[in-house]
Design goal:
single chain, 425 residues, alpha/beta, 11-stranded parallel beta sheet, LRR_dom_sf, Leucine-rich repeat-containing protein 34, LRR-containing_regulator, Leu-rich_rpt
Length: 425
Amino acid sequence: MSDINSTLHIFEIVCEDMSLEKPTYIHKMLLREKEKSATEHKEFMHLYLAGNHPQLTTERITDSDCLVLLKTLKTNRFVRSIDLRYNVITDKGAITLGKLLEGNKSIEEINIMCNDFGPDGGTALARCLHVNTTLKVLRLNGNKIGNKGGMSFAQALQVNRTLESLDIGDADLTIECLIALATVLRENRSLKALNVNRPILWTVSEEPTDHFTRMIKVNKGLKELHLQKFNMRDFGAFRFAENLVFNFTLTYLNLNCNHITQDGVKELSKVLKLNTGLKILDLGYNRMEDDGALFLAEAIGSFNTTLECLNIVSNNIGPVGLCAMANALNHNSTLTSLYIWGNHFDDSVCTAFAEHLHTERLLEQNCDISSYVVDGKLYLCQSGYIIRRHYYYAPIYGDDVPEWQIRGEFHRSTVHHVEIIQDIN
């Protein structure tokens, strides 16, 4: 099964053997691909089955639909990636998908974020990684796999050497499995991206943060690490600063939504002065204030030549800190993306950043602000661009639709003609 025709044929046979009506959504997407193949030859297919596209479906993929997918795709070589986000797959369906990944030798990416499975489903998906040698990207964000599921993935990463990106953020991970993951990644060199956002932590001692910083010191494979809502304080930022100076592999560090103040930012700015491998630093929704922004501005304006993207939204930064950041852009040509909304603007801030926007030092798609004038006075407003813009959701209309998202069809509104009767009186 290496083309859409054979895939569709097997799908129909499977539904007939199971005495099921063809699942509407799956059938529709396969037929859509068949129509496209009449004008465009494709060697592989992305099977889009996301449940949040209202123009494609009003139904959601269920556990029984997962069984149909298992029997249709187990030996399939045409489908290389599957998008199952925002559906109603439970533990039973996740176990079925685990069996699919055990048998299939072609699927490289699967997205099952924001479904309804828990520890048993997460464990089944982790166990398939013990034998699977083709899967590169696995996204389970928003499924409450808990400590049991997290420990299963820590065990799997001891064996698997092909998975490159794992997203188990917002999954109710606990301290135990976080420490296990950090310990395993001291030796694992194949994983390039890890998301463990919003764990369930019952301590303020930052033990998980300390283990991750120790891992960063020796890990030579990880390029992207997301520790959003990690209850991190200045101690955690200190530990990161101490160990990041030994790491030239990590390019993206997400410390969004923590409790880092100016003291922690001061230490991180010292790392930026040393020009490590960091290209993206997300410090949004922390507490750096003006002093923290001044530390960053000094590092960016006078020393750093590697950082490309910085997020400092909602950090209680005033005009002093923001103007310092704007001035730093005059002396730095590497930083091309900057996100600052949610701080305190005045006329000086509006003028400073509007100049960068008008001279295209900051392009519209690389920042979260745009400028406008009312009654001769300059203002800044928030634009629609944010960091990781299409990770959780993407539009179906307009110029900002990514390649993987299926565009919505534009329907003209019905034109109603109302007869006008002239009043001769």
